[in-house]
Fold this protein.
Amino acid sequence: MGQEIGWTPGNLWTPDVRIANPPPALLAKYTGKEKSFFYDYAGFVVKVIQDSMVADKLRGILEIEAVQIEKPVDVRVMVFPARPLRGRANRMLHGSYNHSASQISLYPIRLPRDWIRHDGSDMFKLSYQTLTERKKRLLHEISKTAIATLLHELLHVKFERRGLASYVEEPLVRKLESQYMQGWETTLLAALQRASG
Ligand SMILES: [Zn+2]
């Protein structure tokens, strides 16, 4: 029997997410400190997504939206940031859904390399209470972006069957994403405290 990965048909949302395997050529572009930072980042995001309160809340939203899947969706947390979007140096890709591969990819947010090397190394290692306010805010942003992006891509899974034009589907998905990302503060704070350190 083949091993089921990711989100499987007929089931409610189960947060079976995995950390992607970066190709050696990509790994070679980063220093040891950076690699360690980004792997800690990916591990943190996996823990937040798998937190039972977060998973329950996502499941509730997907139930309200009646999101159904026909084939397993592989949900992977990318280790390294995506390349900047074409023509928009400041806008980074946070996630993508590849319909034919049935795969969702979540990317880390963009952070200055200098900061990662000098200041960022302890951010995922220390317990939440001992972090500076700035790092607490950053963990919050990282968690919220990861969940919002995951929800966004899962909503694309819902709408793909309708065959809408992307200029119709994208604003619809964004509107639902921002609507459903209200009221996450308590859940997020609890989850990120459990996931850090
Ligand atoms: Zn989208």
